[in-house]
Amino acid sequence: MSETAANEIVKVGMAELSIATIPQVLRTSGLGSCVGIVLYMAGAKTAGMAHVMLPDSSMAREKAINRAKYADTAIEDLIELLKGSGMKEKQLKAKIAGGAEMFKFSSNSNTMKVGPRNVEAVKHELKSRGIEVTAEDTGGSSGRTIEFYIGENGLKIRTVNQGEAVI
Amino acid sequence: MDIIEEISDHHLDVLKEIGNIGAGNAATSLSQLLAQQIEMTVPSVRPIKFQEIPEAAGGAEQIVAATFLRILGDAPGSMFFIVPEEDAAPLVASMTGMEHLTVDSELGSSALQELGNILSGSYLSALADFTRLNLQPSPPSLAVDMAGAVVEEGLFELSLASDHALIIDTVIYEHGTETKSRGQFFLLPDPDSFSTIFTSLGVGFHE
């Protein structure tokens, strides 16, 4: 892995998405029930990351929706951005992380299942577009901070209890 | 319409009063529990973007012990009691009288869970009395993890309708040690609850 200190970090906040180019590193911190999605292409110098909060834009109760907040619209917009930098949708691959259940509840309320629902929605959207998920670290009950190193295409995942791993 | 655009300064004052009453009652409970004088800051009530919430809770990657519950009943919402990890151990130690109790031990964790239950319950019951609304807590749950990660689940209802949260934020501390926080309460009403809360307190609110 490259040394983070030498690279410029592009921070992606909750309900945001961004693309970046080597030597930049894409990073999102403190993923809980949200899902971090990385779209990249082998050999490309550019990649994109989204931090989605909710499964589907059809759930929205707001008029002007923030498209980066929902799995379906965030993936669509990220693909458009990457196409704008000359990448082909069919050659894109994905790595995903997050979708934890941070709190254990006895109730089966939908609100508390948002993590797994987010993961399912992200996978469904990627599959429908023919984008392969090459690696994932999803579910469980730990928060995650993720960094994507473009070119090496490694997704570094840090949790409080399990330290660091690269997928 | 985004709820945030509908809120006036007068509404913010009402929400501050809610923070005062809820956290005040919780501070009293904690005073009794620790046999120490616990005080609180003036609640800060502000609309903030989701991206800024992890910062408000101490920083996205700051490790915190968070007690989370859903408020059920007339005015649903989410509530958090958040203690930075390094302050959690001294807190359970003074609560149990066991000096070397750590948060990741079974006893430490259940003491912290119990503390979260008592304080959030005491916050919520003061709120229910004040508003005369039926407000029931879901069973509270404890997580010790990154602040950014623990707050996300509490934003579910809100995030369907807005990109902002109106957060009622109150810090409690030991008397004479203003800089040393004993914990932080976050109250995040669901979008539809604002109108119920304001109406119950006789403040006009039109969506």
Question: What this model shows, in words?
Answer:
The complex is a heterodimer of chains A (167) and B (207). Chain A has one domain (4-166): 60s Ribosomal Protein L30, Chain: A (2-Layer Sandwich). By secondary structure, chain A is α+β, with helices and mostly antiparallel strands. Chain A has a 5-stranded mixed sheet with strand order 1-3-8-9-10, with no helix packed on it. A 5-stranded mixed sheet of chain A has the order 2-5-4-6-7, covered by helices on one side. Chain A has helices at 71-84, 114-128; strands at 9-11, 17-21, 25-31, 35-40, 46-52, 93-98, 132-138, 144-149, 154-159, 163-166. Chain B has 207 residues and is α+β, with helices and mostly antiparallel strands. Chain B is built from 8 helices and 8 strands. In chain B, strands 1, 2, 3, 4, 5, 6, 7 and 8 form an 8-stranded antiparallel sheet that branches. In chain B, helix 2 (9-34) packs across helix 5 (106-131) and helix 4 (85-96) crosses helix 5 (106-131).
- Topology pattern of chain A, helix = H, strand = E: EEEEEHEHEEEE
Strand content of chain A: 25-35%
- CA-to-CA gap between the ends of chain B? 7 Å
- By CATH, the topology of chain A is 60s Ribosomal Protein L30, Chain: A
Provide the helix percentage of chain A. Answer: 10-25%
Question: Which regions of chain A have little confidence, pLDDT < 50, spanning 5+ residues?
Answer: none
Shape of chain A: globular
The CATH topology label of chain B is Chemotaxis protein chec
CATH architecture of chain B: 3-Layer(aba) Sandwich
Helix vs. strand class of chain B: alpha+beta
CATH homology superfamily name of chain B: CheC-like
| Contiguous helical run count of chain A | 2
Total strand count of chain A, please?
10
Name the quaternary structure: heterodimer
Largest interface: A-B, 38 and 35 residues
The CATH class of chain A, by name, is Alpha Beta
Task: Please state the second-level CATH architecture of chain A.
Answer: 2-Layer Sandwich
Q: Low-confidence parts of chain B lasting 5 or more residues at pLDDT below 50?
A: none
